[in-house]
Amino acid sequence: MSSIFECSGLTKQFGKKEALSGVNLKVERGQIVGLLGPNGSGKSTLIKLANKLLTPTSGTILIGGKKPGVATKKIVSYLPERTYLNDWMRVNQLIEMFSDFYENFNPEKAYDMLKSLKINPDDRLKTMSKGTKEKVQLILVMSREAELYLLDEPIGGVDPAARDYILQTILRNYNEKATVVISTHLISDIENILDYVIFINQGQVVLTSSVDDIRDEKGKSVDSLFREVFKC
Ligand SMILES: Nc1ncnc2c1ncn2[C@@H]1O[C@H](COP(=O)(O)OP(=O)(O)OP(=O)(O)O)[C@@H](O)[C@H]1O
Q1: Taxonomically, which superkingdom (predicted)?
Q2: Cβ-Cβ contacts under 8 Å for 72 (sequence gap 6 or more)
Q3: Helices 160-172, 130-142: crossing angle, 10 deg rounding
Q4: Helix axes 130-142, 91-101, angle to 10 degrees
């Protein structure tokens, strides 16, 4: 079976600025992957290219062997860095909308997660705190039975106590054959759930490794390795 996510010589320029420079990557199925890098390193650009919100300047990106497009959008569930949902909508209306929109959306899963995070489905988004809105958005994304979840900064806006809970929610609700890519710079909060990491800096992949290898061979946590690699 083809790898779920593959890039070859992937480059993206915005005018003179090169946000990604010749990225080569292969992500296999069935793992939780941390896409880790400092601000402006190219994480969101990579995720947007995978969702066809941007097109490459050169090189290729393939999702399950296919170029990003209608077919790949069916199997990719994407959490953007900013919310795009209509503020006036109630959570149960959003669930209805997602059910209409995506064949693989599972409303029961969404209601279960809302219950465990103590969010009232009758509430409108505009009455919620920023962190609760982020939780709702993540619940909607994780309630699709997708093959690839691309989560751009899923825990950035929630307090540290809620982070663990959210990460456990991600873990409990993804099928083991699927792949979850999580972009973040909050590494210590997330490293316990990661199987594999991609370090990205100034548009280039500087390290890829399984988390076990970092711990066993280097005798370090992902967080301390990250601090070492990205020392200012
Ligand atoms: N639409 C755009 N026009 C011009 N430059 C852009 C655009 N989008 C991104 N960039 C630049 O490309 C680089 C990579 O940005 P990107 O948003 O991918 O970084 P990031 O790793 O996601 O950062 P952060 O962690 O701060 O979200 C940055 O220098 C950014 O300023």
Answers
A1: Bacteria
A2: 50, 52, 63, 64, 66
A3: 10
A4: 30
Q: What is the CA radius of gyration of the chain?
A: 17
Q: Which pTM was predicted?
A: 0.94
Write out the CATH class of domain 5-229: alpha beta
Q: What does the domain layout of the chain look like in residue ranges?
A: 5-229
Q: Which of 13, 14, 226 to mutate to test the pocket of ligand 1 (most atoms within 8 A of CB)?
A: 14
Residue with tokens 């953007």: 80
Q: 16 C-alpha vs ligand 1 centroid, how far in Å?
A: 13
Those residues whose C-beta lies under 8 Å from the C-beta of residue 90, and which sit 6 or more positions away, are 121, 122, 123, 124, 125
Nearest atom (ligand 1) to Cα of 42: 18
Q: Is 143 in the pocket of ligand 1 (CB under 6 A)?
A: no
Give the distance, in angstroms, between the CA of residue 217 and the centroid of all CA atoms in the same chain: 27
Q: Tell whether ligand 1 has an atom less than 6 A from the beta carbon of residue 45.
A: yes
Residue 36 has pLDDT above 80, yes or no: yes
Using alpha carbons only, what angle is made at residue 139 by residues 77 and 43, rounded to the nearest 5 degrees? 50
pLDDT category of residue 1 using cuts at 50, 70 and 90: low
ipTM confidence = 0.96
Tokens representing residue 7 in the block: 């890039």
Atom of ligand 1 nearest to the CA of 200: 21
Distance from Cα 46 to the centre of ligand 1, integer Å: 10
